[in-house]
């Protein structure tokens, strides 16, 4: 992390005592590392199963029970509702370092719910959904890469940051009105830059949110064409 950012945050903490990032109530000592007050944290329900990537049904025991030929399983730590929406937004656009802790807690609580012994993730390679290089430069970091790192470290998995690359500079999906526009916007936007990192591999594809699913679908398609085997798309939050 940038030293200046650290110093700035340290000074801000002294000048302005930490407040809950969601409701602005002042945080008690033990809450300070989480950046959220107890009440707001309780509002976040952490899921316990994977989901079908076609109909978003819960999949008990992490097995495909409905759309058996769907091309990937969807893992989402929580639903994309008000509290989590504002947290992720700040994480993404302001690089609020205090948010890395609560977000990684959320993600790891979820993966532990899915697989207490971690065996579900054995023999997987972690790949973050890339940003186009112009976007990454503008933002200063790729939020998916930070989340991917948390998973790779926790489960001792290889991470391939450059396996997938984003060649086309797409508009932010949030600016587009309908699904058709979103799909055209994203068509052929991903390229597998390192095929040997993908061919024959099981992949955990990481992104921050899953709304229309168009971004992940595109990325999965590219990975599949490059010969990927099982794919789990893992995100912090999904819309219902
Ligand atoms: Zn709060
Ligand atoms: Zn289904």
Describe this structure in words.
It holds the Pfam family DZR_2. This is Phosphoribosyltransferase domain-containing protein. It comes from Candidatus Harrisonbacteria bacterium RIFCSPHIGHO2_02_FULL_42_16. Residues 11-67 form the Double zinc ribbon domain. This protein has 240 residues and is α/β, with parallel strands linked by helices. It has 2 domains: 1-43, no CATH class; 45-238, Rossmann fold (3-Layer(aba) Sandwich), CATH 3.40.50.2020. The protein contains 8 helices and 8 strands; from the N terminus they run H-H-E-E-E-H-H-E-H-H-E-H-E-E-H-E. It has helices at residues 3-15, 38-42, 82-94, 100-114, 133-139, 143-154, 179-186, 214-225; strands at residues 50-52, 58-59, 73-79, 124-128, 164-166, 190-192, 202-210, 231-238. The strands form 2 sheets. It has a 6-stranded mixed beta sheet with strand order 2-1-3-8-7-4, sandwiched between helices. Strands 5-6 form a two-stranded antiparallel ribbon. Helix 4 (100-114) packs across helix 6. The longest helix has 15 residues, at 100-114. The model has no long low-confidence stretch (mean pLDDT 88).
């Amino acid at each position: 992390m940038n030293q200046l950012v650290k110093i700035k945050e340290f000074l801000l903490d002294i000048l302005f005592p930490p407040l809950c990032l969601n409701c602005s109530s002042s945080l008690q000592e033990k809450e300070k590392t989480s950046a959220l007050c107890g009440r707001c944290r309780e509002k976040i329900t952490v899921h316990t199963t994977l989901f079908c990537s076609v109909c978003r049904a819960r999949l008990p025991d992490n097995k495909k029970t409905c759309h058996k030929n769907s091309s990937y399983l969807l893992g989402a730590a929580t639903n994309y509702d008000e509290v989590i929406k504002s947290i992720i937004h700040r994480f993404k656009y302001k690089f609020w370092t205090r948010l890395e802790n609560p977000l990684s807690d959320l993600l790891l609580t979820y993966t532990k719910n899915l697989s207490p012994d971690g065996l579900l993730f054995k023999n997987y390679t972690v790949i973050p959904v890339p940003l186009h290089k112009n976007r990454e430069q503008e933002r200063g970091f790729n939020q998916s890469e930070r989340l991917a790192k948390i998973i790779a470290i926790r489960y001792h998995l290889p991470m391939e940051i450059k396996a997938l690359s984003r060649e086309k500079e797409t508009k932010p999906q949030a600016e587009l009105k309908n699904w058709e526009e979103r799909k055209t916007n994203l068509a052929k936007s991903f390229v597998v830059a390192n095929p040997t990192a993908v061919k024959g591999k099981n992949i955990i594809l990481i992104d921050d949110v899953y709304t229309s699913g168009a971004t992940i679908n595109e990325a999965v398609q590219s990975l599949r064409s490059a010969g990927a085997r099982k794919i789990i798309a893992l995100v912090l939050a999904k819309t219902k």
